[in-house]
Amino acid sequence: MNRPAPIPAFVATALLLSLAAPSAAAPPATATAEDEESPTLAAMQDELARTVERLRMDDVPPPYLVTYTLNGRESYSCSAQLGALVDSEGSDSRSVTVDVRVGSPELDNTNFVNRFYLTGRRRSTTLTEDDDYWTTRQRLWLTSDAQYKSAVEDLSAKEAWLKTNRVPDRPADLTPVEPIRHREPLHPLEVDREASRELVRRLSAVFRDAEKVQGSRASFTTGASSSTAISSEGRDTRTTGRYARVTAQAWTQAEDGMPVGDLAVWYARTPDGLPSADEMEAGVRRMEERLSERVDAPRAEEYIGPVLFEGEAACFLILELLIDRLSSPHEPLGLPSAGTPFKNRLNRRVTPNFLTVVDDPTRSEFEGTPLLGHFMVDDDGVPAQPLTLVEEGRLRAWYMSRIPTRAIAESNGHSVGGEGGPGNVFVRSSHTLSKEALRAELLAVAKDQELPYGIRVEVMARSDVSVSGARANGRYRNGSISLSPPVAAYRVYLDGREEPIRGGEWQGVTLRSLRDIYVTGDAPTVLNAARGGFVSVVCPDLLVEEMEMKKPEEQEAKLPYLPHPSFAGD
Fold first, then answer.
1. Residue 138 resides in a domain
2. Average pLDDT score over residue span 105-113
């Protein structure tokens, strides 16, 4: 493999810019204290204009695109253990992300692996708590300068690499779009702090009576965010978001020392949208009972057979097998394995023909449940739009930002953090059964395969809330998917009897596993989860005809020598 040519050694004199530090004159008349016309945004507009007009080096092209994005976040969180408050804190932060592109949309400094890093990464600078014009301009000036110098060096390295490497059908680096103006109203953080502290005390107190549970925690988090972007293309957008989340986690050890844990999670757009405290307490008690059952449950054994994924477990199965694989599809130069693993499967069958998968970020709720994957404008400033990913089993598209791919060049309004990503995923099926019939079908398939039982999964490990004994994964490598392990799973015997199992990991999971989906339920579950940005999945239960589970690895710690102090009788 040819190595890239050495990057030219730019001496200090060659890096002198025609830009000087902004002079401390009075802020322009455009700066007001109102909403988006704040001193910070005025500083962004003025420094953007100056950067575009005057930032350049001798014999080096000026930037062809500059984007400034102001990110504001407010949050509050608290947590408790066994009914006692552990912490309670709020935060408020502001930063500006700077993106400077050199070259042209056909060939610029991005989408290239230069030695060990991907070029085109944006720089961020934190801002002062005060909404101050001159400190904002000073930080933008220095960050833009550093970003421009890096962009020039990266473009030079990329051009040198292309002179010694042939790349057939190389896509452009950026898709032109019509700039838009879109401003969403700001939503200041509103939270009853005392009520949230009382809630986590109440939920965590459930575990006072849980003799088999070693540790537990209940947490509440809420946040409000805004993202205001302006660019030299004429983009002027502001998107906003809010969320509230309550979690309960518990962990312990089985008699042989194996760590086991469980969790319960609720998401809403605002604290007022969360389930009632009574509903959440009931959910925590069910979770505690489920965990206590697994302390004495048998270990998972080697298994190849049908698996029924119910509720949120079905949503996570679709996320890790399909949605994650259709995200971030761009193919940077110097990284031949990059891109979606489905890049050669466009318009070919990837699931059974009774499944259709659509992503529609423009929807804000489903049957009264909020969808946190909702957005109207994506992170590239492109209007969001419904996108059919799979139509009757055939792959029709993948998530696209403004970074073209060989097969699909245009953005489809699904940029998340500058790369193609999901919003609200809807899995629709034309081959359904009721929950009772679906469980009966699990046993019928197990019997047909001459197995004594099938496996039913209720909860899988998730990346946004950790759980003891089961670590979320979902990575794709060399054709295999490290599917996140089950947290709560059951053997369902042919006579209908159920037995919880603990441990166990999936193996042999590939993209073809999607085609083993045998039949689905008729009632969808809504999952909200944080995966970089928020994503929502609306999916029915899924019966997979054949999956493979292996025994848990032997990595157990010893049990505590003394019993739980609350039940020691001292």
1. yes
2. 96
For 172-227, the pLDDT digits (tens) are 999 999 999 999 999 999 999 999 999 999 999 999 989 899 999 999 999 999 99
Note whether 370 and 445 are same-domain residues: yes
Give the E-state strand segments of 363-423 in sequence order: 365-366, 369-370, 387-391, 394-395, 415-416, 419-420
CA-closest candidate to residue 103, choices 42, 70, 148 = 148
User: Per the structure block, which two tokens stand in for 321?
Assistant: 């097998």
Give the residue from 46, 37, 65, 40 showing the smallest Cα distance to 122: 65
Count the neighbouring beta carbons within 10 Å of the beta carbon of residue 561. Answer: 5
- Between the alpha carbon of residue 123 and those of residues 76, 97, 145, 290, 415, the distances in Å are 26, 6, 11, 46, 18
- What is the SS3 assignment for 327? coil
Q: Over the chain, what is the mean pLDDT? A: 91
Residue 164 pLDDT level (bands cut at 50, 70, 90): very high
Q: Has residue 33 got a pLDDT over 80?
A: no
Q: What percent of the chain has pLDDT over 90?
A: 81
User: For the segment 118-150, what is each residue's pLDDT rounded down to a tens digit?
Assistant: 999 999 999 999 999 999 999 999 999 999 999
The Cα 49–Cα 186 span in angstroms is 25
- Burial of residue 166 (CB within 10 Å: 0-12, 13-18, 19+) is exposed
Range of the domain at 261: 193-295
> Tokens 């994957």 — which residue?
373
Neighbours of 75 (CB within 10 A): 17
The confidence score (pLDDT) of residue 501 equals 95
Residues 362 and 504 in one domain: yes
Q: Examine residue 76 and state whether it is found in any structural domain, yes or no.
A: no
> Does 309 map to a domain?
yes
Residue 31 has pLDDT above 50, yes or no: no
The per-residue pLDDT for 28 is: 44
Across the range 356-379, mean pLDDT stands at 97
**Nearest CA among 531, 534, 419 for reference residue 472:** 531
Instruction: Say whether both 411 and 276 belong to one domain.
Output: no
One domain for residues 491 and 447: yes
Q: H helices of 242-321, where?
A: 277-295, 312-318
- Which of 279-302 are b and which e, b meaning 16 or more Cβ less than 10 Å from the residue's Cβ? ebbebbbebbebbbbbbebeebee
CA dist 400 and 511 (Å) reads: 20
Extract the tokens encoding 179: 């700039």
Query: Which residues contact residue 376 at a Cβ distance below 8 angstroms, ignoring those fewer than 6 apart?
Result: 182, 184, 239, 361, 362, 383, 384
**Same structural domain for residues 265 and 345?**
no
